[in-house]
């Protein structure tokens, strides 16, 4: 269980990474691979809602996904979408990416023969901001919106997700917003003082498993 005095800090980071983009139609919906099958489910829902006519799933495996998705994240995401009625002929699979930068770069290459002016990135709720910043850096000129299943932190961890793991991911994602911009992997994003304070308190409380090493 999360200590009660840290609830507000977790909520601060959770809300920071949710960009709350206004839904709009895009040329393609890109489901970014992860351990969360809900990304594929939500991509299928958005397809059926008419948000995009084409779907691309991207992702190989990470140590945290190989057991759940042994044949690769994108491959399993495709199967989930098929089960939910997305036609096979509108699904593309990019099975090699091992990080968010590769997700964007490899999918851009996969779509190179098509006229793509706008994309919807479908992600875990706490991955939106970094995915957006990465796409704007690596795919300039394309209009990018992010989408995730609308869910609270409490509801997200009610299922199979471990609270400590998700909080550590939130802390790691927050650090990466600044670090990856400094390294040229992503465009800079504002980090409000309240977010910085929440990040510092959660890191001091021991949620450091996903922090990058000191430079």
Automatic annotation (TrEMBL):
Residues forming coiled coils: none
Record-linked InterPro entries: Cell_Envelope_Assoc, DUF218, Rossmann-like_a/b/a_fold
An example Gene Ontology CC term for this record: plasma membrane
Record domain DUF218: where: 40-147
Protein name, as recorded: DUF218 domain-containing protein
Organism: Amycolatopsis pretoriensis
Taxonomic path: Bacteria, Bacillati, Actinomycetota, Actinomycetes, Pseudonocardiales
């Amino acid at each position: 269980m999360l200590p009660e005095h840290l609830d507000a800090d977790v909520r601060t980071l959770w809300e920071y990474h949710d960009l709350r983009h206004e839904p709009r139609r895009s040329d393609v919906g890109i489901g970014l691979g992860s351990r969360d099958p809900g990304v594929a489910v939500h991509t299928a829902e958005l397809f059926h809602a008419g948000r995009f006519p084409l779907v691309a799933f991207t992702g190989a495996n990470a140590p945290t996904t190989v057991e759940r998705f042994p044949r690769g994240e994108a491959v399993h995401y495709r199967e989930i979408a098929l089960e939910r009625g997305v036609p096979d002929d509108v699904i593309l699979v990019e099975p090699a990416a091992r990080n968010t930068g590769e997700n964007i770069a490899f999918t851009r290459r996969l779509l190179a023969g098509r006229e793509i002016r706008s994309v919807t990135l479908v992600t875990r709720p706490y991955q939106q901001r970094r995915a957006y910043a990465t796409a704007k850096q690596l795919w300039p000129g394309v209009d990018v919106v992010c989408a995730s299943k609308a869910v609270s932190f409490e509801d997200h961890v009610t299922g199979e997700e471990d609270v400590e793991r998700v909080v550590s991911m939130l802390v790691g994602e927050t650090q990466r917003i600044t670090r990856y911009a400094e390294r040229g992997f992503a465009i800079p994003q504002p980090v409000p003082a309240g977010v910085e304070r929440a990040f510092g308190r959660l890191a001091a409380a021991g949620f450091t498993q996903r922090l990058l090493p000191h430079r």
